[in-house]
What does this fold into?
Amino acid sequence: MGVSEAAKRLASRAIERGYQLTAETLNRLIKVENPQTLLDEFLAWLDEKRINQVIIDESLLGLFLSSRVKEAEKSVGESIPEVVVESPTYEDLMIEGVAEEQRLYLLSRFQSIRRVFEGRGLSFRPVRELMKEGGEGYVVGMVLSIRRRDTHFLIEMEDPVDVWNIFVPTRDRALAEKTEYLLQDMVVVFRARARKGLLIASDVYLPDIPSRRQTWRGPDVNVCIISDIHVGSRRHAAEKFRELIDWLRGSENEAEKTVLMIINGDLVDGVYVYPGQESELSLMSYADQFAEAAKLISGIPERLKVIYVPGNHEPCRRALPQPPIQARYRQILSQGRELVYAGNPAWIRVGGIRILAFHGQTLDDIIQAGTRFSYSTLRERSGEMMELLLKSRHLAPAMGVVTPLLPTRTDYLSIPEPPDLLCLGHTHVAAFTTYKGVQLVNSGSWQRQTRIQESIGLEPSVGTAALFNLNAMSIRFLSF
It folds into this structure.
C-alpha cells in the first residue's frame, strides 16, 4: 500500500468518527508501527476526554502520545522486578606479583572444575595408580599442550600431583572431533586405559552444563543489551545510536516495556588501546570521549535502569576480572544520567532471572588458540563459540593467549552454576543461540568496520541491540 493511500484510509476513518486530521498529524501517524491501531486508540481517547475540537492537529496527537507513555510507565512500574548486581566490583583485588599466586590460581581453577565433574557422579583414579595397576578409569587434568599426529593426538596433561601424557586415537572419528574442541588450560576428564606404560583415551568429557527446562517466568518486561558503542572513534555510528534512543523514548509497546539496559563494554573507543589508533579517533582523550558519551546516554528514558560493564577499551585494569571505570570518569558520565557501575564479568539478578554479562575479551583467545574458529567465520559460528564457554564452564577456557588474567585465589571466571542468559560483546558480530535451556547472545556493535577488522575479514553487525523478554524468555534483535 502506498503512503498516500494509507493516509487516505486514516483520514476517512477519522472523518467517519467526526474528526478531521491535519496533514502534519497524518504524516506523523503513518510513520509509526500499526498506524490504524494507534488511530483507533487516539480517537477513543478524544471521545473519552470529550475534546470539543473537529480539526485535530499534531500538538493534540503529541499530547495523547505523552499520556500514553505515562500510563505505560505506570503500568510497567508496578511490575518492575528487583535488579541486583550479585557479583563483586573486583576493585579491592590486589596481587603481590609472585609465582605462588599463579600456582594457587591454577589450583583454584582446577578444583572448581573438578567439583563440577564430581557433582555429576564421576570418581577419578590417580594416574600413577592407573598406570601401575592397569585397567580402565576416569582421569582428570588440565591440558598443557596438544600435538596432532597422523594416527593420534598426543596431549600433555597436568594435575596437582603429576604431569602425564595421554594418546587419543584419530581412527575414532567421534572422539577425534570432541578432542578438536580442547584448548590449552581446559580442565577435562578422559576415560582411559593403561597399556604397556601408556594411557590411551576411549572418551573425553568437558564439564558442560546440565540440560534443563526454564519454568520460572518473569513479568512482561524487556532488558535491552548493547555493547561496543566506541564513542570517540571516527567510525562510531552515532546516528544509529540516536535512533535506538528515539525508539526507547517512543510509543511502541516493546519500547515501553523495556525497564533495564545493560551496556556490556566498550562504551568509549579509548586511547592507545592498539597501535595506530590515534589516526582513527575523533576525540583524543578519555575525558572528551566520556563527555560525548554522557550526552548520548542522557537521552535514555529515566524509567530504565542502566548497568555499565567495562570492556577492553575502558580506562581500567585490563586483566580479568575488571573493576568499573574510575571515579573521575563516573563523575563525567553522571552529568548525562545515573548509571550502575559493575565489574566484568557481572552476575545480575532480575527478579528470578540470572544474567551473566561478560564483555567477551577471551573470545580472542579461543580463536587464536584453536583451529575451529576464525574472525572471518564469526557470523556463521559465533553461537558455537559462545556454547564452548558453557561447555568448559569457564569464561576463559584458554589462558594467556591474548587476554591477561589476574591470579586471584578465587576463580571469578568459572561458571559454577549456569545462568539463564549469557550476554557477550567484543567481537562486534550479533549472534543468538540457545544451549541446554540457556539463552546466549552477542549484541553486535555501534562502530563501522575498522582497518584491523577489515584486515582479518571481520564484518561487524552495526547498529544492533538485543531485547530479552523476561516473560517469554526470548531474544529478538533490533536493527537501526
